[in-house]
């Protein structure tokens, strides 16, 4: 086959990303390349011959060795050349294969099969393989990297954010354990869906017409055929395998893709100059801008989000491939070929996100500065509401005050936050100016064992990092759980 420069390829997957992620690209080639597609169809045709030979009691070691040799001898270029004559991909493959196998078994090539018995089965074989040998190892590598990061930063204080505003304190590990949990469940679902992929040998309309003429038990022939490829039969076939087996796997890929894109969004936002809590690894020779030498952009996280934008919408095509008129039409013949592009794009995003997580820097000083309300503040006043220095502790102040029997505790604390804002005070300073409120809160805190004595209450409100609920325990627990699940 004539060599072509990769820079003449049309898809960026085959030039830009094949260079930047060479190892990943090479791991995908045996499963989703055009060469792999033809090779899997050859494997399916050979499996059919073996099934016939087994039922006839003719599966001698000599013939099996010859079939193995024939399987490895088929050149995709030869099949393509034959297709230029036949204008039919499977018939072209059959013609080429008949010449490669021993002549005594040549009549068994494709015997009793229709094209989709080979195509759908070969696709299921490839998708099961790429999922188990490439996709799942990639996803588990990312999940374990997240577990490592969560455990490392389980106790690192961070301000929680809702609606883009400061909420109450959490920890970095807790924030990231969200993705450990979400992605971990998706990985387990992908694992499950991958072993449920099915094949078929049920003929032109799925009713076993052709194989019923050939053998007494067509379903036994089908089982023998599929077992060679590590598959089971679709419960009901038309000319096609029921499309939902593959659809459900691809949909779960898309679920995982969305989780990773959400993580990428969170990470890149936390790298904003005005937030500055996290930082992607940036090599000494790396350039962030062609004109601004100081730039250190979160480009890897942005790249992951961009890949998601390009590939996630293809889920609509997966849904549309559910529909085929009567026992079969060809409306999925072109669209289904692009499943390979989707898998490649998804894997690129997973690999890139793993690189981000493994090199992610955490600025603990900045995290504490932001948590205490310093971000964007001038003269101690960081803005409205929860932006007040220490304002993230308005919640426990309200709850503790309510526990003392004050029915309008929420309104009392709200007014104190307004006073802090108007007078440029920290929340603790504003609370100190309301001694009756502080005494009630301090008494309740001492009663609950939150502080040694009521007089220590003010110190609590000066250190918001002390108020993080079960964030540390939850983060640690989830990291341990999913690390165990990934290694089973």
TrEMBL record:
Keywords of the record: Lyase
SUPFAM superfamilies listed in its UniProt record: L-aspartase-like
Enzyme class: lyase
SMART domains: ADSL_C
MF term (GO), any: (S)-2-(5-amino-1-(5-phospho-D-ribosyl)imidazole-4-carboxamido) succinate lyase (fumarate-forming) activity
Cellular component, GO annotation: cytosol
Membrane-crossing segments per the record: none
Protein name: Adenylosuccinate lyase
